Amino acid sequence: MRDRRTLFILIGMPVVQILIFGFALTNEVKNSGFAVIDLSHDERSAQLIDELDASRYFELRGKFQSLESLEQSFRKGQVRIGIVIPANFGKDMERPGGAALQFIADASDPNVANTLINYANAVVVDFEQNITGEKKMPFTIQTETRMLYNPQLKGAYNFVPGVMAMVLLLVCTMMTALTVVREKELGTMEVMLVSPLKPLKIIIAKAVPYLLLSMLNIASILLLSVFVLDVPINGSLTLLVGESILFILVALSLGLLISSSTASQQSAMFISLIGMFLPTVMLSGFMFPIENMPLPMQVVSNAVPAKWFYIIVRSVMIKGVGLKHVWKETLILSGMLIFFMTMAIKKFKVRLA
After folding, report:
1. In 3D, which of 34, 53, 32 has the Cα closest to residue 293?
2. Euclidean distance between CA atoms 107 and 71, whole angstroms
């Protein structure tokens, strides 16, 4: 009873886990953005769009006039699925051949794409049954599906960006978090503190080896992805490597901040694992769609560096976009790098006592 901290963890941890897994982490897809190309502009097409928007699975994000505009919204990550309604949609429903619809899904995450296509088909079936009940005659709607970026629906297209974010963050943060603390425990920190080296030089020297090691990890992951898993690099390789180095620097600076703020390797390891592994897996969008989570969890996910790097890698590697589509995520990671590195330097103690 006197150990209040441990008691809080033992009682509070199950409550937090139940709330997180019960409300925030779910494989059910909902509130996904969709866009429409309505070439019919009749009553039936308007009814179908309203039914899709009224569903809890979809949220209308825009109406476009061309496939090029729709694809740009996919590249920007604004929508996950698009619906193309051809001309004379309402009239075709009353003809023997029936009407046609085309669904275009972002298959960079194949599981979400399949789920959204199934949801959209279910809404169309309900819409068709409602019309049949009104008119007392058979109406048919034929749907066609097109999967963007990943026509074969390979799981590796979603797996590789997520693993890159998880591996780089964990390796860089965890290993770097132990460096300064290890020097304190071994007693060699005193030697460095009495030397003419400034704290900034000591911190940089601790980060350089893990930067080089992480660059080797990037090379091995990309080589295995392309030549073993058949995952293409559709965008600029230079941009992808540059963004990866930026993310590595963010992870290194975060690890140095943890290392400078803790007094033992055990504490540094615990903070790195609990503070980095769980948020990376749960709140980066790698395993659970962020838009499914409650608003507070969505806000918290913005503080997870892996979320922004995962978006960048998937956009550059799978969708083939350039810097103009990922500049916001790049700017956020740059801001995190400056913040974590500044805090690490300020937290670095030049006196052991």
Report:
1. 32
2. 13
Distances (CA, A) of 175 to 96, 99, 206, 260: 67, 59, 10, 13
In whole angstroms, give the CA distance from residue 125 to residue 110: 23
Is there a contact between 40 and 89 (Cβ–Cβ < 8 Å)? Answer: yes
Distance CA 53, CA 226 (A): 38
Query: For residues 104 and 146, what is the distance between their CA atoms, to the nearest angstrom?
Result: 5
Give the CATH number, domain containing residue 139.
3.40.1710.10
- Tokens matching residue 352: 């052991």
Q: Are strands 58-64 and 81-85 parallel, antiparallel or unpaired?
A: unpaired
Token digits of residue 18: 């139940």
CA distance 348 to 328: 30
Please check whether residues 134 and 162 belong to one and the same domain. no
Residue-range definition of the domain harbouring residue 81: 32-148
Q: What are phi and psi of 100, to 5 degrees?
A: -120, 150
> In degrees rounded to 5, what are phi and psi of residue 167?
-65, -50
Q: Are 58 and 82 in contact (CB under 8 A)?
A: no
Classify residue 351 by burial, with Cβ atoms within 10 Å: 0-12, 13-18, 19+: exposed
Burial (Cβ within 10 Å: 0-12, 13-18, ≥19) of residue 153: middle
21, part of any domain: no
Q: What is the pLDDT along the chain (353 residues), one digit of tens a residue?
A: 777 766 776 677 677 666 666 665 666 677 888 999 999 888 888 999 999 988 888 999 989 988 888 888 888 888 999 999 998 888 888 777 778 899 999 988 888 888 899 999 999 888 888 877 655 555 678 888 998 888 888 877 888 888 888 888 877 887 777 777 777 777 676 666 667 777 677 777 877 888 888 888 888 888 988 888 888 888 899 999 999 999 999 988 888 888 777 777 777 777 777 767 777 777 777 777 787 777 788 888 888 888 899 999 989 988 888 898 899 999 999 999 999 888 887 876 655 44
* Residue 183 belongs to some domain of the structure: yes
